Amino acid sequence: MRHLFKAGLVVALIGCIAAVFHHDTPLPDEWNPIIPLHVDAPITPLTAYKLRLTMGDDARCLAVLEDAADFRSESPLEDSVDCIISPRITLRRVGQAKLRAVETRCQTALRMAMWERHGLQAAAERHMGTMVSEVRHFSSYSCRKMRTGSGEDAGMSTHATANAIDISGFVLKDGRTVDLKRDWPKIGPTSDFLRDAFQSACLWFPVALGPEFNALHADHFHLQTRGWGFCR
Fold first, then answer.
1. CA 199, CA 120: separation in Å to the nearest integer?
2. Fewest C-beta atoms under 10 Å: which of 1, 9, 56, 88?
3. Which residues, other chains included, contact 77 with Cβ-Cβ below 8 Å and sequence gap of 6+?
4. Which residues contact 111 (CB under 8 A, 6 or more apart)?
5. Span 15-32, mean pLDDT?
6. CA distance from start to end of the chain
7. Band of pLDDT at residue 1, cut at 50, 70 and 90
8. Helix (H, G, I), strand (E, B), or coil: what is residue 173?
9. Per-domain residue ranges for the chain?
């Protein structure tokens, strides 16, 4: 009986694998582990796995971003041994939100696209009754050391490899502007939108630092592609 049970499990496993790889599989793409990440696909428990695979493969990152952003691929930048951008792009739009052209890394842009699609726009509609037409930023790449309240730290900033971007505000489709420094301290829907947007960014960036982290971040969200789930 035990042998029959084990044989049944093997047959079931083979059937599941065949269903995944068969060209007529009924499994939706977002639930199929062999189908690459698509930014517009519904979120499932497999999304994080697909995003992790994409983040670790430069060619795959650029291919996925092609359908989700307006960008131009650039040759790698190497200002020094510590200051490098690869794969390097010039980003002008993620989803429905444009940006002032920013030099960044594909992986940073991809996380931006996931946030815009699955967090930012929903927060804007929920609290502001409209959508975001532009994401304002200070920069992504900057060849410098980390900044702390007591000055510069010994380590290099993640901006030195364009693995972070600093978001300063938003322009809404109805023309209103939202500014982190001006609007975060207020009480009301604009502040609620910013706080909701920040919390959703924490789902897509391993490190997200906002105005309540310290005085250095009073006017922006620091969104970083490297780290271990630090949201503050």
1. 10
2. 1
3. 83, 84, 85, 86, 88, 103, 141
4. 51, 55, 204, 205, 223, 225
5. 63
6. 55
7. very low
8. coil
9. 27-145+155-231
